[in-house]
From TrEMBL:
<feature type="binding site">
    <location>
        <position position="108"/>
    </location>
    <ligand>
        <name>NADPH</name>
    </ligand>
</feature>
<dbReference type="InterPro" id="IPR045865">
    <property type="entry name" value="ACT-like_dom_sf"/>
</dbReference>
<dbReference type="GO" id="GO:0050661">
    <property type="term" value="F:NADP binding"/>
</dbReference>
<dbReference type="InterPro" id="IPR002912">
    <property type="entry name" value="ACT_dom"/>
</dbReference>
<dbReference type="InterPro" id="IPR036291">
    <property type="entry name" value="NAD(P)-bd_dom_sf"/>
</dbReference>
<dbReference type="InterPro" id="IPR001342">
    <property type="entry name" value="HDH_cat"/>
</dbReference>
<feature type="domain" description="ACT">
    <location>
        <begin position="354"/>
        <end position="433"/>
    </location>
</feature>
<dbReference type="GO" id="GO:0009088">
    <property type="term" value="P:threonine biosynthetic process"/>
</dbReference>
<comment type="similarity">
    <text>Belongs to the homoserine dehydrogenase family.</text>
</comment>
<dbReference type="InterPro" id="IPR019811">
    <property type="entry name" value="HDH_CS"/>
</dbReference>
<dbReference type="Pfam" id="PF03447">
    <property type="entry name" value="NAD_binding_3"/>
</dbReference>
<keyword id="KW-0521">NADP</keyword>
<keyword id="KW-0560">Oxidoreductase</keyword>
<comment type="pathway">
    <text>Amino-acid biosynthesis; L-threonine biosynthesis; L-threonine from L-aspartate: step 3/5.</text>
</comment>
<feature type="binding site">
    <location>
        <begin position="12"/>
        <end position="19"/>
    </location>
    <ligand>
        <name>NADP(+)</name>
    </ligand>
</feature>
<keyword id="KW-0028">Amino-acid biosynthesis</keyword>
<dbReference type="Pfam" id="PF01842">
    <property type="entry name" value="ACT"/>
</dbReference>
Length: 436
């Protein structure tokens, strides 16, 4: 057993977040001891590659490439698990819980896929799982939903939950750069992975939204039921056109109650430029959460990165030491026992839309598109066409932007299918909702 006044800790994974945890434990040891009432002592570190150099001092703890020694140490009561992937981490956390240890994780993909299973296992064993760092990095949104807002019925969540996409969209507009160039810069700065697909296609934000929606609304949402669209097809001209119209384009994660049904989506969306969420720049996250009593709360800050994410992990550790984690985890379990809400049929969701087409610069093209929209009950609010050089033979390409009045998604999809068959289209087009 550990000496009185010491709280031994295990760490699985010593990459970006793991090294951040070590740094905070070492640099803020006195502050953390005062907060926790005990000294947090790192006793075991488990890594994949023992030969890899790391920029933190691990000389005071046992370093291995196996969980076995960590699991066998009865003095370790809490383990930080910050390894990516799903199946391997699931097996690790099951073993850790079964060995009598509380677990802190930042793995949103794991919780999205197996959260219910792991939470139930932890409950049955009298253990806890802390996961503040899994959503929005250093922003304390999990504790806000689970404890601070318990007097409220949550009505809506509107958020920027992926810093990589927000960085790309911000940089493109501010520096008038194209998507591919900014993506490369994001990779060089460490904001985007070598394979950025999960960030830019909306997967990462959708996983985080599913976790938040489960806590806020007591409803498990199958991942494939979240309307999801990425930012890959947005070009600089879309951002400039939106800005001219008084909007910014953001990858918006939304979960809201609509007549006792739940609407969930992750889509690039036009947001009024004077709104706080539109002014969230760079790799920052933003979450607006509306309660029936408190109104709208707004939280913003670093949604990723070594130290912001590690800050949330260490906060969960301190909660484990003080006993707050057990109270919060029980509150979380109670939140999940509510009657689930039905999902609002996506075809019935009505919103204004931004439509952008690259079309042949010839007569009747706009009329053809307007005719299709009109047949499906979609009313046009405004039309903008960039000026092009005169093309006598009709080989020129024009850029056409249409804003619509509110229209149901089912009608829009039916119109999409017809418009895709028009021979006047030249290259990809895009459709994005406009936030009211």
């Amino acid at each position: 057993m550990a000496p009185a006044g010491l709280f031994p800790i295990g760490l699985v994974g010593c990459g970006t977040v793991g090294t951040g945890v070590v740094r905070i434990l070492q640099s803020s040891a006195d502050l953390l001891a005062a907060q926790a009432g005990q000294s947090l002592t790192l006793r075991h570190v488990v890594v994949r590659d023992l030969t890899r150099a790391r920029d933190v001092d691990l000389s005071g703890c046992a370093v291995s490439d196996s969980l076995d020694a960590l699991i066998a140490d009865p003095s370790v009561q809490a383990v930080v698990h910050v390894v990516g992937g799903v199946e391997g981490p699931r097996q690790d956390i099951v073993r850790l819980l079964q060995s009598g240890k509380d677990v802190i994780t930042a793995n949103k993909a794991l919780l999205c896929a197996h959260g219910d299973e792991l939470f139930e296992l932890a409950r049955s064993l009298g253990r806890t799982i802390g996961f503040e760092a899994a959503v929005a990095g250093g922003i304390p949104i999990i504790s806000t939903v689970c404890t601070a807002l318990t007097a409220n019925r949550i009505l809506a969540i509107e958020a920027i939950l992926n810093g990589t996409s927000n960085f790309i969209l911000t940089r493109m507009l501010d520096r008038r750069q194209i998507y591919d160039d900014v993506l490369r810069e994001a990779q060089q700065l460490g904001y985007a992975e070598a394979d950025p697909a999960m960030d830019v296609d909306g997967t990462d934000a959708a996983q985080k939204l599913a976790i938040l929606a489960k806590l806020a609304f007591g409803t498990a949402i199958p991942f494939d039921r979240i309307a999801r669209q990425g930012i890959q097809n947005i070009d600089l001209q879309d951002l400039l056109a939106a800005a001219d119209l008084g909007y910014r384009i953001k990858l918006l994660a939304v979960a809201r109650l609509m007549t006792e049904r739940l609407e969930v989506s992750v889509q690039p969306t036009l947001v009024r430029a004077d709104r706080s969420i539109a002014m969230t720049s760079g790799a920052h996250n933003f979450i607006a959460i509306e309660g029936d009593a408190v109104g709208v709360l707004k939280l913003a800050g670093a949604g990723a990165g070594r130290l912001p994410t590690a800050s949330a992990v260490v906060a969960d550790l301190v909660d484990c030491v003080t006993g707050r984690a057990a109270c919060t985890f029980q509150a979380l379990l109670r939140l999940q026992q509510r009657n689930p809400l039905p999902l609002h049929p996506s075809a019935d969701i009505a919103r204004r839309q931004y439509l952008r087409f690259n079309v042949a610069d010839r007569p009747h093209v706009l009329a053809d598109i307007a005719h299709v929209l009109g047949r499906h009950g979609i009313s046009i609010s405004s039309v903008r066409q960039d000026e092009t050089e005169d093309s006598v033979d009709g080989t020129g390409v024009a850029r056409l932007v249409i804003l619509t009045h509110r229209a149901a998604e089912g009608c829009l999809q039916a119109a999409d299918n017809e418009i895709d068959c028009l021979d006047s289209l030249r290259g990809p087009r895009i459709r994005m909702p406009i936030a009211d």
